[in-house]
Amino acid sequence: MPRSPLPPREGISATSLRAPGGKATHDKNHLPVPETIGAWLEDEFPEATDDARRSLLTTGDMRDEAGAPVVWGDPVVPGGFYFFHRPVPAEERIPFEISVVFEDEELLVVDKPHFLASTPNGRFVRECVVTRARTDFAQPDLVAIHRLDRVTAGLLILSKRPETRGRYQRLFQDRNVAKTYRALAPTPPAGMEFPLVKESRLVKPRGARQVLEVEGEPNAFSRIGLLGERTPTIGEYVLEPLTGRTHQLRVHMNSLGLPILGDPVYPVDLAPDPYDFSSPLQLLAASIGFDDPLTGRERFFESGLRLGESI
C-alpha cells in the first residue's frame, strides 16, 4: 500500500480505502468498477447518508495516491488507493500520563501507564499512546514498533522516521530483542523450583478474549524466575518471553497456578469496564535491549515505573 499523502489529523492517521478492480485485488467478488467516486462510495457505504458520504470528500479531505483532491464525479481508478479522514468522536480521557524514558533522532521510548492502549484500537482511537504522543510532542510520524497490552504498563518504543522504521520493526519480527517483565503473583507452592521454562501451544479462538493452551507442538516459551517475596503471600517474578504470542506471559503464569495480580482475563474473564481503574494488572515491561540496526551499538532501556507501590 502506498504511503498516505494526508498527514495525521489530531494525531489520528488517515484511513485508506482501495477501489474495486486492478490486477492485484480480489475485488469484492469481482464486482464491476463503479464509474465515479460518488457511485463507489454509495456502494461502499450503503447505510450512510448522502451527506455523510459527501463529507468524506470535504471534511475528510479525500485524496488519491498522488495526493490530488477527489471530487464526487471523478472516475474511479481501478484498484487505486484513496485516503481520507474519518470522523472520530470524542473519548473520555484515560487519567494517566505517558513519560519519556529516552529520545534521539530515530526513537522515542516511553513508559506506558496501565489502562492506556498502545495504538488506536476499537473504542480507543484518541486515547492511546501513539495519538497522544503525536499531538503532545508535535511529531506526526510517530509509530509504535511493537505492541503492549492496554492493561500492561512499561516500555514502549516508537519510531520517528518512516525511512528507518522497517529496520527497527524487523528486530521484533525476527526476535532479536531481549525483553524482561516484572510481575506480582501469588507466592509459589513448596517444591516449585525457579528459574523454569514454561512451554505450551497457545491458540486464540476467533472472537474470544482468552488465549487457550491446547495439545500439540509448543509455540510459546517463557523463562520465569522468582525475585523474592513482597509479602508472605505475594511474590515478585521476572519474566522473559522467548516467543511473542498474545497474552503469553499471563497464560503461562496462570497455567502454573500463579495468576498475575489484577488480571481481568485469567483465570476468569471478568469483562471489566475499561474505565474501571481500581485493580491494575501487576505486569510491567521492565527492560528492552537490542543491537541498533543503524549503528550496531547496544541499546538498553529500563522502565522508571514500579509495580504495587502500596503493597
Itemize the secondary structure elements and their pairings.
Layout: E1 15-18, H1 37-44, H2 50-55, E2 63-64, E3 81-84, E4 99-103, E5 107-112, H3 129-136, E6 143-144, E7 153-159, H4 162-173, E8 178-186, E9 196-203, E10 212-214, E11 220-231, E12 234-241, H5 248-255, E13 283-291, E14 298-302
Parallel strand pairs: 7-13
Antiparallel strand pairs: 1-3, 2-3, 4-5, 5-7, 6-7, 8-12, 8-13, 9-10, 9-11, 11-12, 13-14
Short description:
The protein has helices spanning 37-44, 50-55, 129-136, 162-173, 248-255, and strands at residues 15-18, 63-64, 81-84, 99-103, 107-112, 143-144, 153-159, 178-186, 196-203, 212-214, 220-231, 234-241, 283-291, 298-302. With 311 residues, the chain is α+β, with helices and mostly antiparallel strands.
Question: How would you describe what is shown here?
Answer:
With 311 residues, the protein is an alpha+beta fold. It has helices at 37-44, 50-55, 129-136, 162-173, 248-255; strands at residues 15-18, 63-64, 81-84, 99-103, 107-112, 143-144, 153-159, 178-186, 196-203, 212-214, 220-231, 234-241, 283-291, 298-302. The strands form two sheets. Strands 4, 5, 6, 7, 8, 9, 10, 11, 12, 13 and 14 form an eleven-stranded mixed sheet that branches. It is elongated, with a radius of gyration of 23 Å.
Note the main attributes of this structure.
eleven-stranded mixed β-sheet, alpha+beta, 5 helices, 311 residues, 14% helix, three-stranded antiparallel β-sheet, PsdUridine_synth_cat_dom_sf, single chain
